[in-house]
Design goal:
Blueprint (H helix, E strand, L loop, with lengths): L14 H7 L5 H17 L4 H18 L4 H10 L6 H4 L3 H10 L2
Length: 104
Amino acid sequence: MSAQPVEPHAIEHDPDEILTHLPRRYHDRFLAEYREAMVAAAHETWRWKHLAEVLTRWHLRSITYSAPGYEQARADVAAGVPGVPADHVIPGWSQLVAGAGREE
């Protein structure tokens, strides 16, 4: 049998790792949000979860922003270049959208 340590407030994403993958132009914004969440968590323990959420969000952004083709896709959207419709890429997209509207 193996046991895992119990960490009720585990932080899954390392800020240094996020900075390694995040393009330089996003560093200041990430650091500002990270520091704000750290200070808040240091003063009010119930905000610890928010810090974990900030790191998770920036981890996902670092993956997205550093992906090959991201900058070009972003420029295309800004220029109004039409993309590929979701229903051509995601099987059953129309049904998912229709189903989402009924769940309210």
